[in-house]
Amino acid sequence: MKVTVIGGGPAGYVAALTAKRGGAEVTLIEKDELGGTCLNRGCIPTKTIIYSLELLDKIRLQKYNNHENIFNVIIDLPTLMERKDKVVETQRKGLSTLLKESGIKIINDEAELLNPKTLILKKTKEKIQSDKIIIATGSRPAELPMLRFDGKFILSSDDLWNMKEIPKSITIIGAGAIGCEFAWIFSLLGSKVTLIELMSRVLPMEDEEISKALERLFKKRKIDFYTDVKIDELKKSEDMIEITLSNGKKISSNIVLVSVGRSFNTDFLKNNEFRLGSKGEIIVDEKLQTNIEDVYAVGDVNGKWLLAHVAYKEGEIAAKNALGENLEMDYSVIPSTIFTVSEVASVGLKENEVRQREIKFKKGIFPFRAIGKAHAIGEIDGFVKVITDADTDVLLGAHIIGPKASEIIHELALAVKLKAKAKEVKELIHSHPTLSECIAEAVADIHDEAIHKIAK
Questions:
Q1: Which domain holds residue 355?
Q2: How far apart are CA 104 and CA 100, in angstroms?
Q3: What span, in angstroms and rounded, lies between the C-alpha atoms of 131 and 4?
Q4: How much is the mean pLDDT over the chain?
Q5: What 3-state DSSP class applies to 188?
Q6: Considering just the CA atoms, what is the radius of gyration of the chain in Å?
């Protein structure tokens, strides 16, 4: 069987590897670099920069014996970018080697779908025949009518990797995951940061208590934010941009980052028979097949969950279905991670969702400042929050803001996936001293049994 995958990002390359290991003859078409947005312009470069800056930040803030910091910390942007480039290049080379040694044919070109079995390459005009086609073309930063990208003053998250110097000030439009991560990056770089959000709070898609905790940390770090506001006017001068908000506030900054979501890469679809959603995403069923038989769409382009780890799983499921299996994608338990002032992670239902479903619930909350490991590493802000069904004690959701939240959320994700009860998770002995002890205490708090918390 011949399988052609369009797009070499997380969804595409996993689909290609899965199909190859399933016995298919696989061709992978990628117009740019392997790894997609995640590796080249998203997950990996941002986390590399954040790690480097947080390390410098810890050194800068460290004090001994109540004396002032004795270290002279200087941020050198070219050095940071060089390290980021090396990490990305290492990962990219490793991916290329993996694909080639697996026997996958890689074509660096753009593809146009002529029909459900035929693709044509833009550069060479070569036609490729396939039994199955998997579309994994991803997404790109979305623009706003008033804020079109110009590469100089009004930037997308992609444009930031061409930055040659640290701006004195930056305004970020959109306080979702990407906006909050870049707010943290530029705050660490020393820029004056202002966040603007249309919704009523930062991270509006997260649990409300998590959002409010992050807002407090933003204030502590002198990151300004304005929520529940719109942009009424924008003026450009020689080196500044002035934005007037709907509340009358005027904000001036050197550059503006637009971080208001993603647009889907479906322009190459000349076949009008494809069913697209209102935002241009490709509609798929639970098996990730489009409305056209033998054509699948995975990753960002289907508009389901714009997360790399979801794309990995979708690529695997689609490839297996293309080879004859009958699997369905399960979106019910997906951990979400955000890397900002304190890491944010969540899985399952949020408190407002539980209320909307009229489920009788209990919640347990335990602060990191109450455990030794948090003090040992100097990161005591934040808490673990768990939500259970009051009648069954089954875990419905978990939300963390604090150190290494992205790492420790997976214990709770497994618990939600397996429909474990809070008392069962409490019985697991957690190693000491670890940050995961906060999980044990949070689930114990459901029944007022948290040891290191004053009884209610």
A1: 342-445
A2: 5
A3: 8
A4: 95
A5: helix
A6: 24
